[in-house]
Structure formats: C-alpha cells, structure tokens
Amino acid sequence: MRLTYLVLDYTFLRGCAKNPTFKSSLPSTELDTLYTPSAAEVAFAQVQARTRSRQLSVLVLLKAFQRLGYFPVAAAIPADIIQHLRAHLQLRYSIAGGFSFAAEVGDRRA
User: Fold this and answer.
1) Residue 22 burial (C-beta neighbours within 10 Å; 0-12, 13-18, 19+)
2) According to the model, what pLDDT value does residue 98 have?
C-alpha cells in the first residue's frame, strides 16, 4: 500500500494573531476554497477511521488544523464547516450529530 503524505501550508499564519480563530460568518466561496477536502485528504481520513462518522471528524479536525495551526476544541468549530464537509462527503445530517469528541473519549475510558 502506498502512503501519501499531506503537506501542510503554514504561510497563511504569518502576520496573524498568536491564536487565530475562525470567522463568525463564512461565505460559500471561502468554504469552497479553504474547507473542501482534496482526494488525498479524503483517502487519509478513510485510512485513519473506519466509520463515516469518524472520517468526518478526522476531516473536520484536519481542515481546522490547516486553517488555524492548532487543534481547536469541538465547540469552536463553526457548524458551517461541519455542514460543508458533511455535504461534500454526501453524509446524512444524523452522522456525527452534535460533533462531540468528549462522548467518544468517555466511552473508551469506561
């Protein structure tokens, strides 16, 4: 199996605040250009997670990290980004409803 490495571009962080955050409203053009996953990113998520719900979680965190340079808490990720990725992957709204990582971590420790 051939592994594909993702190249992360950090040039957008130059001149930004110490801890960049998401904009309060995201226009559709920005969603399309910044948050639409490439085929390599979708393949990466499929290798990392078996279920479609977790693949969505991987992609949301990947795109958030690419934009911010750190992994934000789930509550800080705008619903527009999650909905955009869900639509791009052609997933039902019920998949990853609420997008809660705390429940998944709690389930593993129990």
Assistant:
1) middle
2) 46
Q: What is the pLDDT of residue 20?
A: 82
Query: What parts of the chain have a pLDDT lower than 50?
Result: 13, 97-98, 101-110
DSSP string spanning the chain?
----PPPP--GGGTT--SS----SS--HHHHHHHHPPPHHHHHHHHHH-SSHHHHHHHHHHHHHHHHHSS---GGGS-HHHHHHHHHHTT--TTTTTT--HHHHHHHHH-
Distance between CA atoms of residues 55 and 33, nearest Å: 20
What φ, ψ does residue 2 adopt, rounded to 5°? -90, 130
Nearest to 30 by CA among 80, 103, 102, 77: 80
- CA angle, 78 then 67 then 61, to 5°: 60
- CA dist 56 and 85 (Å) reads 7
